[in-house]
Structure formats: structure tokens, C-alpha cells
Amino acid sequence: MKLNLHNTELVRSAADPSGFIRDRLPVVAFAGRSNVGKSSTINALLNRKSLARVSETPGKTNLVNYYLIDRKLYLVDLPGYGFAKTSKAQKAEWGALMEAFFADREHLTLCVLIVDARHKPTADDVSMKDYLSHTGIPYFVAANKADKLKSSELDAQMRLIRETLELDDSVGLVSYSARTKSGVDSLRGMLFKYLG
Ligand SMILES: Nc1nc2c(ncn2[C@@H]2O[C@H](COP(=O)(O)OP(=O)(O)O)[C@@H](O)[C@H]2O)c(=O)[nH]1
Ligand SMILES: [Mg+2]
After folding, report:
1. What is this structure's pTM?
2. How many domains does the chain have?
């Protein structure tokens, strides 16, 4: 797929399933913990500074943001999980929203599960991965914030992530930094490989 990455816009912020877009264009969703860098990753992929809003105060809103790319596909910034200060009501809302989003399998082409390259994946990360693999949604794992690791530490961290998430050998795992853009080309490459 050839995409003009300059032609991008936020076309919808859905607060509930009635706002989900179902227009047959492929949808690539970015899932991960609050603050892991989902919005930064979308900006890095698109070479944009602040198309997707990067936040210092995570976990406030449950919105599904649709970015239309070259009128050919959507990149979707999902609300994050695992933010400590989230209220019970907000957690329940997140769960219901995500269940509805992922239940709508027909339009969902691919999910990029973003984890923090520095840390062992959390229990929430493992749940997210289990959910994706059980539902059969194509996915791969992207380990962000690799700029915070020494290159000598990276291999061991990637093994830890693969082991903790119990990823099959067939599941892609790529490390990168949305901040320095190091590895973003590999991330983009994997995205296009999965999109076919
Ligand atoms: N060091 C480092 N910080 C990052 C990176 N990507 C994002 N951040 C920071 O992590 C915070 C959360 O980023 P954001 O994209 O809003 O995360 P989101 O909540 O998953 O959408 C912000 O302060 C970003 O500047 C990265 O690759 N390296
Ligand atoms: Mg965000």
C-alpha cells in the first residue's frame, strides 16, 4: 500500500461505540498502557510533531481517536489502560468501550500493542495480548522508549518482553523510540509487512 503521509487528519474522536467508524477502510489500532507513547508513536510514524496529542497527564479521557491517512486507512489512538489513578467507573467505561471496539472485527485490520522497552510487561499488557490472541486479531508488539536503554541492554529486554507476553515466534516484536525516531523505520516496515 502506498500512502501519502502528508495527507492526514483527525476525523473522529469517539466517546462511545456509536462513534466508531465502519466504512470499510482498514483500521490499525494502537493499544497500550497510559503514557507508553501511543500518541507519540502515531506522530512519529507520520512525521508529525503534534497531530496526535501527547499528554503529560494520562488517563483522563476515554476517547477512540481516528486519524485518516491519505483517505486509505485509519490509524486509531486507543485510550490507555493501567493508569493507577483511574477511578473504578472510568475503568469500567474503558472496558466496555474496548470490548465494543474489538468486537467489531470486520473493520479491524491490525492492532499494534505498544509496551515500554525498559520494563517487564505489566499484568495489563499480558491481558491485552491474551485478549488479542484469543480473539484472533492480527497484532504485533512494539517496544517504545528504547532511547532510555543502553544498546547492550536491549537484547535482554526484548527477550524478557517476548517471554513475559508468551509471544509465538511468528509474532513480530520491534523496538524503537518515538522520541528520537531511532527504529521508527523498522516499526513502519513491520506495519506495512502486516498490512500486506
Ligand atoms: N524517553 C521517551 N519518552 C517518550 C517516548 N515516547 C513518548 N514519550 C513520552 O511519554 C509520555 C507519554 O506519551 P504519549 O504519546 O502521550 O503516551 P500515550 O498516553 O500512550 O498516548 C510523554 O511525556 C512523551 O513525551 C520515547 O520514545 N522515549
Ligand atoms: Mg495518548
Report:
1. 0.95
2. 1
Which residues neighbour ligand 2 (ion) by CB within 5 Å?
Answer: 38-39
For 191, list phi and psi in degrees, rounded to 5.
Answer: -55, -50
Q: Ligand 1: distance of its center to the CA of 196 in Å?
A: 28
- CB 145 less than 6 A from any atom of ligand 1: yes
User: Any idea of the CA torsion for 71, 128, 80, 87, to the nearest 10 degrees?
Assistant: 140
Is residue 1 assigned to a domain? no
Strand partners, 75: 28, 67
User: Residue 185's domain is classified under what CATH number?
Assistant: 3.40.50.300
* 86-141 residue pLDDT tens: 788 888 888 999 999 998 877 799 999 999 999 999 999 999 999 999 989 999 99
CB within 8 Å of 19: residues ≥ 6 apart: 12, 13, 64
Ligand 1 nearest-atom number relative to CA 53: 16
Q: d(Cα 28, Cα 38) in Å, to the nearest integer?
A: 12
Amino acid at 174: V
Closest CA to 111 of 134, 135, 136, 138: 138
Whole-angstrom distance, CA of residue 21 vs CA of residue 74: 9
